Amino acid sequence: MTDALHPAATQHLPIFITAPGSSDVLMNIMAVFLVLAVLAVGLLFLRIHTLPERMAHKTQKLQFEIVAVLGLLALFTHEHIFWVIGLLLAFIDLPDFGTPLRRIAGSLEKMAGIESPPDEVSPPVGHAHEPSAEVPAKDLPKKELKHA
User: Fold this and answer.
1) Whole-Å CA distances, 141 to 44, 98, 100
2) Contact between 52 and 67 (Cβ < 8 Å)
3) Can you give 22-45 as a three-state secondary structure string?
4) How many domains does the chain have?
């Protein structure tokens, strides 16, 4: 068998044309590039998808759990409205109505002479209005000891 080129062929073949029996370098490079591109796009999608949850967690919003559930619903149902609602909830700061109402109820019970039952529900850890659990009670100012 001879290695002579066909008379119509050019003398210099492009680099992506390989000889029979040798490996195709361009195909191997493109396979690696395709795998890396799919992983990068997937990571970007998940990063954008968890944006509302990360925003609500960073600002320690009360509605963090709702935003997290809406994010999961959007991920598994492919309904984008859940993601949009979660993003809007992550931006909105809902007022805390529970604390003033509990204080009003406690004051009314004290005025009426009724002994109030102990709270069964503990406040969330790290809440902005509660003293931190790591600070001993003797180190807190008297004003905070009174409410603790």
Assistant:
1) 47, 24, 21
2) yes
3) CCCHHHHHHHHHHHHHHHHHHHHH
4) 1
Which tens digits make up the pLDDT trace of 71-123? Answer: 999 989 988 899 999 999 888 887 777 888 889 988 998 888 888 777 665 55
Q: Is residue 43 part of a domain?
A: no
CA distance 147 to 119: 14
Question: Is residue 71 assigned to a domain?
Answer: yes
CB of 125 within 8 A of CB of 64? no
Predicted pLDDT at 138: 56
Signed CA dihedral, 20, 21, 26, 31: sign only: positive
E strand spans, 39-145: none
User: Is 33 inside any structural domain?
Assistant: no
Statement: residue 134 has pLDDT above 60: no
60: containing domain:
49-92
Q: Is 60 left (phi over 0), alpha (psi -120 to 50) or beta?
A: left
Residue 133 inside a domain? The answer is: no
Tokens of 21: 């029996």
Tokens of 94: 């809902």
